[in-house]
Give the backbone structure.
Amino acid sequence: MKQISLKKIPLRANPFSGWALRIDRILFALFALQLMLVWLNLWAPFHPFGRSRWPDGLLIVLATATTLASLTRRLPGQNVILASFIIIAIAAAAQTLGALAAIPFGPYLYTENFGQMLFYPLPWAAPLLWVVAILTSRGVGRLILRPWRKTKAYGFWLMGLTVGLVVLLDFGLEPFATQVKHFWLWGPSKAGLYWYTTPWVNFLGWAATAAVILAFTTPALINKKPAKQPTDYKPLVVWLLVNMLFVTAALVHQLWWAAGLTAAASVAVTIFAIRGARW
C-alpha cells in the first residue's frame, strides 16, 4: 500500500485568525460613536435624543462589551467569562442589599430613568457598571504599576490601586447619576458629609465591594501562561472617555466641584499611567 506523506498535504490557514482584533476594534468604534452621541445630547441645543433612555443603556452595554473584548486578547476566554460572572454576581448582591437595607452604600432608591429591573429592586444596568469600573480600573492600575510588576507585593498593590481608581470613578459617577440623569435618589442619612447628596459612606461601600470582587476575581485575571504582549492602553482610554463624559455633564449643569475634581483626577491618572507604561 502506498503511504501518503503528511508533509505534502497543505495546511489551511485558520479562517478565524485575527477575528479577536477585528471584533475588539469594531466594538470600540461603536462604543466611541455612542459615547459621542450621548455626549452631544448633554450640551447640544437641539438634544437629538431628548429624554430617551435607550442611548444611555446602549452606551453601558457597549462599554462592557469593548472592555471584555479587549481583555480576551490578553486572557483566555473562559477566564474573562468567569471573572465577569463573579463581578456581576457580587455587584448584584451588593446593590440589591444596598437598595433594600441601605448596606453598605447608604439609603438610595433607583428610578425608572436607570432602565428596566433585572429583578426588584435591581436595574439590569447596575452590575454592568461594575464590570466596566473594575476591569478598566485594574487595567489602568497595571499601567501605573508596570515598573514594579516584578516585586513580590505587586498583586496587593494592584488590588489596592484598583480599589482607589474604582472609588475615584464613582466620585464622577455620583453627580452624573443623581444630578444630571437622575438614575437614583439618595435618602436621608446621618452621614454628615455629602458629595452632591451622596453620603460619604457610599464611597466606603464602593471600596469594600470592589475589594471583595477583586479578592474573588484576581485568580481568573492572572495569565497562567504569560507571554510578551504589547502595552494595552485600552482600559485607560475607556476609563478616561467615561470620566470626560462626567466632566462635560458637570460643566453643563454647573457642578463645578465635580467637574474640577474629575478633570484633575483624570489628568493625574493619565500622567502616571503613561509614565508607568513607558518605563
Summary: Residues 154-180 form the longest helix (27 residues). Residues 79-277 form one domain.
